Amino acid sequence: MSSIKIRTKRLDGKTQIRTLISHPMEHGRNKDKATNKLIPAHFIQVLTVKHNGKIIATCDMGAGISKDPYFAFLLKGGEPGDEIAIDWTDNLSNKDSEKHTIS
Fold it and tell me: Which residues contact 22 (CB under 8 A, 6 or more apart)?
């Protein structure tokens, strides 16, 4: 099961793309309360959004983004049946991707 949830909504000739990603987004400065040791950094570095295979946004991110981040984009155009694909890569080389068809 993907860590990415995608929702789209058509608005006056535009398409609103909303995504929620399940990810811990640890910056490496928090301590584990049980062991009092630092929790290693674990955060999304690159987020890519594609419309019908064409990259429309690439976001380079760092450790300052909160756990389970939410992102929203507004796409000029977009028609029912078009495909939106979102993928991410984190600092531990983990990856995930999800596709969504605009309805």
Answer: 3, 4, 68
Alpha-carbon span 50 to 73, nearest angstrom: 11
Show the tokens assigned to 76. 């000029």
Question: In CATH, what number is assigned to the domain containing residue 27?
Answer: 2.60.40.10
Distance CA 12, CA 44 (A): 32
What does the chain come to in residues?
Answer: 103
Six token digits for residue 31: 């301590």
Structure tokens at 85: 């694909």
Q: Is the pLDDT of residue 1 over 90?
A: no
Please state the domain count of the chain. Answer: 1
Residue 86 is part of which domain span? 4-101
**88/45 Cα distance (integer angstroms):** 7
Give Dmax (Cα) for the chain: 53
User: Whole-prediction pTM value?
Assistant: 0.91
* Residue closest to 6 by CA, chosen among 86, 63, 95: 86
